[in-house]
């Protein structure tokens, strides 16, 4: 949700707005290549689930940049979904969902990664932000991290 992260990835965007994805839930269970032994966020289908986040408007040719960064198609699949905007309208977009081989439950979250997630404070509800902050309890010891 961090706009600075998109800029670092050299993905141009013209708009960043709040969006809600219905029928999914946020999970922190995807193995992180950068720091083995830590995890990053993923979304998984859940009948009554709701995920709040950022919807970026990017040029079509920038999808390829995101594909490289996300490791598509080997590490992630892309899925076309509909999200709800603040005005209750719906738009189609693409999300990345981790491939099952990359999932490992109960890994700690690296503080740097959670900081990027929490940069979405300006576009998620207060309740959802409190939910995101609750993951601070899963921050692991940085001395156990290994950059790869």
Describe the model.
The protein is built from 4 helices and 4 strands; from the N terminus they run αββαββαα. It is of the alpha+beta class. A hairpin with a 7-residue loop joins β1 (15-31) and β2 (39-57). The longest helix has 8 residues, at 63-70.
- Reading side by side through the largest sheet, how are the strands ordered? 2-1-3-4
Q: Provide the gyration radius in Å.
A: 15 Å
Overall spatial form: globular
| Helix-residue proportion | 10-25%
What low-confidence regions span 5 or more consecutive residues with pLDDT below 50? none
The separation of the N and C termini measures 23 Å
Q: pLDDT average, as an integer?
A: 93
Question: Which features does this protein show?
Answer:
single chain; 148 residues; 4 helices; globular; 4 strands; alpha+beta
Produce the secondary structure layout.
Layout: H1 3-8, E1 15-31, E2 39-57, H2 63-70, E3 76-85, E4 90-98, H3 111-118, H4 126-133
Antiparallel strand pairs: 1-2, 1-3, 3-4
């Amino acid at each position: 949700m961090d706009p600075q992260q998109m800029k670092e990835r050299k993905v141009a965007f013209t708009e960043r707005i709040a969006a809600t994805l219905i029928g999914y839930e946020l999970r922190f269970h995807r193995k992180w290549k950068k720091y083995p032994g830590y995890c990053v966020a993923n979304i998984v289908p859940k009948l009554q689930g709701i995920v709040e986040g950022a919807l970026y408007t990017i040029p079509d040719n920038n999808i390829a940049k995101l594909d490289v960064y996300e490791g598509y198609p080997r590490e992630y699949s892309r899925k076309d979904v509909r999200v709800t905007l603040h005005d209750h309208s719906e738009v189609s977009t693409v999300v990345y969902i981790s491939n099952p081989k990359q999932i490992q439950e109960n890994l700690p979250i690296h503080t740097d990664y959670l900081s990027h997630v929490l940069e979405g404070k300006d576009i998620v509800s207060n309740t959802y932000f409190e939910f995101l902050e609750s993951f601070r309890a899963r921050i692991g010891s940085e001395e156990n991290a290994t950059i790869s």
